Amino acid sequence: MRTTERLFLILLQRIYSMTTYRTVSIDGLDIFYREAGSRDNPTILLLHGFPTSSHMFRNLIPALADSFHLVAPDYPGFGYSSMPTVDEFDYTFDRLTEVMAGFIDAISLKRYSLYLMDYGAPIGYRLATQNPERVESLIVQNGNAYAEGLGDFWQPMRAFWQNKTPENTERVRQALAIKGAKWYYTTGARNLESLSPDTWTLDEALLDRPGNSDIQLALKYDYQSNLLLYLQWQAYLRQYQPPTLVVWGKNAQGFLVEGAYAYKRDLQNLEFHLLDTGHFALEEDGDVIADHIRCFLTTHVVENTMIDRTTTTDPDFDAREALRLLGPDPENWVPDRPGIDHNVTIIGGSGSGSTFVFALRRAGIGRVTEIDAADDEAHAGVWLTRARMKTLRTPKNLPGPELGIPELSFQAWYEARHGAAAYAQIDHIGRVAWAEYLSWYRQFLGIQVRYRTKLVRIEPDAGFFRLHLEVDGVPQVETTRKIIFANGVAGTGGPYIPPVLADLPRTLYAHTADAIDFEALRGKTVAVLGAAASAFDAAGVALESGAKAVHLFVRRSELASLSLLRVRDYPGAYDNYPQLPDAVRWFQAWRFHQAGTAPPPNSIKRAIAFPNFHIHLSAPWKSARKMGDRIAIQVNDDVSEFDFAIAGTGYFVDPTKRPELADFAQHIALWRDRYEPPEDLRDDNLGMHPYLGSAHEYQEKVPGTAPYLKDIHVFNPAGLVSFGLPVGDIPSIRRDVPAIVSCISHDLFFEDWAHHEARITGDIAPDFENSLYAAAVWKQPIKAATR
């Protein structure tokens, strides 16, 4: 590189590294902010704490400005921003957040990493939960979001919150005055001689302005509102999994180090550093923190930003292009039949049901309806209701609802919004992220689910079914030729309630299938029966909700740890499993049952992270009885009392227990009707599974007694023995959805063969008249006459 070029780059770097000092008007307030670095680089929004201002970032900004765009505002009442009185401005964290949101829009920040420190945390988390798509990462420096982070330091404040008397108000005012700004800088610091007195001197001068003590009192009183939002912020962290760097001054008294460790419960993509310093860690360890930030953001944000700069701002552009190139959906080729409302009715409004709608549409099969008894999308399926895991169990790269169109996949959807590097960082798909993807899938593809539509009874008739429904609670009958059950575990039989719980009132226990009020378990002692994924997830949520203690009881002497389904997830076994002999399929299902369902390691870690979680092995319940307002449970020879019990005991499969099948359940062939296992492989529960055909259709127990059963297809876990998987989960989509759609297409075509025969052999109008080419027809030249 020539000397002139090198000098130019040095000059350019210095220009970008220079901090500028600006003011912008927001809601009539002058908001002061510091800014440095090129806007072409990733942005870091620096949110300061108490009792300081953006001045706390004076050294960090130039240290990072060569590679990042940094913005540090002062809140109203702080630093050099406007300071209206408490009568002129509502000094609450909600209002400060509104001003900061206006500031972000005013200076056109689209996406950013948030530096959360002290007061910056409750403001930043409000911003993040309001616009999660804008947040590229979090840098948490003594920014609290967990109750564990609040120690004895907060006791006077709690008294102030509970009883805002003049006396308590004055105590807090005096406490703030006695501590002063210097206390926050020096407490917990390693070397007081390394601290510049300019910091607390400037802070004290700004705090001593007339009226500012009233402002600080108002905010201290409103700080209690932040505690009420902790669970919401923690849910945000679990749902969106923002890449997070924790750099925490471990000697700080205001926000304890326990508050730093708590982040490990909810975040998978977490870099964690404890620093031997106090509240204002930047004063002693600014260089260390700057290095951590540079490395962290280079890994987690810079690559994404480079990708984002070169692509369209429309996250659905690729998906739209894929559909355009695929071409329009074929026209409906199924002829209408008098008195028939639907060609296919799909029971279940979650992901698999919507996948069938799209697959049938692409097969040219129209008049398809999808119904669900839930009130709305948020309550349909399990992902936002009964499912309580943080992430899906299955690998993130399994084919799913996209049906071979990569641009419709979860990966494409996620990367379009968060970048390829963000997708690469996640091990498994977040549960809530999956629900968001399915919601997008339905919206993008124009799939309409009829909510508040409950299937009550199926009445077979000649060549069709009458569906007895309740639509918004009103009885209604519709007709359909085909039915697909895509209703998950709820459609198999029902939740398995162990007999030992039969005599307990439902106020004292719940099944994991129920809507459980976990907040009501705060401070309670909870017993969990079961050791599979749902049991551990329920235990984890109870602990995260503040349960006093959770005891999980396991019949076995150790936890099941063999994932038997995983050994046959290669294409050969996956694709050909339904053609295996009955004896082989039965043995595989029996072996799976014997081994038990292994809980995912992440679910176990989630629970054991709490010291008040306990596992009891070889601990079957002998009895459970009501004792006052508690439960007395006998395990072996010991009796213990609990406030509440949760049964994580799974579901049973029995078509005769499904009320909608009552008209014909006795005709459905079960595995016990078709296969007699050796005595040592008997399993009555497996024997109750329906013996399904190659397209998941019910089969007749006695041939000829119920031929209509072939028109009902079962895409739920009742297909486990027949197909070797918990059918309805993501792994079953690629193989089984096309098979079912192909069968339905075949049946509908040949049931209407007379119509199609006439259509394909009837008269056809010519594409053009002979006149189109008449002028080019060769005509034999007329030979000249000879004499």
Q: Hey, roughly how much beta strand do the residues contain?
A: 15-25%
User: Can you tell me the overall shape?
Assistant: globular
The total of beta strands comes to 25
Classification by helices and strands: alpha/beta
Widest beta sheet: strand line-up: 1-2-4-3-5-6-7-8
Helical content stands at 25-40%
- Stretches with pLDDT under 50, minimum 5 residues: 306-311
Number of helices: 27
Could you list some keywords that capture this structure?
27 helices, 787 residues
How would you sum up this structure, described in words?
- The protein is α/β, with parallel strands linked by helices and 787 residues long.
- Helix content is 36%, strand content 17%.
- The protein has 27 helices and 25 strands.
- It has an 8-stranded mixed beta sheet, sandwiched between helices. Strands 9, 10, 11, 12, 13, 14 and 25 form a 7-stranded mixed beta sheet that branches. A 5-stranded parallel beta sheet has the order 16-23-17-18-19, with helices on one face.
- Helix 3 packs across helix 4, helix 5 runs antiparallel to helix 6 and helix 6 packs antiparallel against helix 7.
- It is globular and about 115 Å long.
- 41% of the residues are buried.
- About 1% of the residues have low confidence.
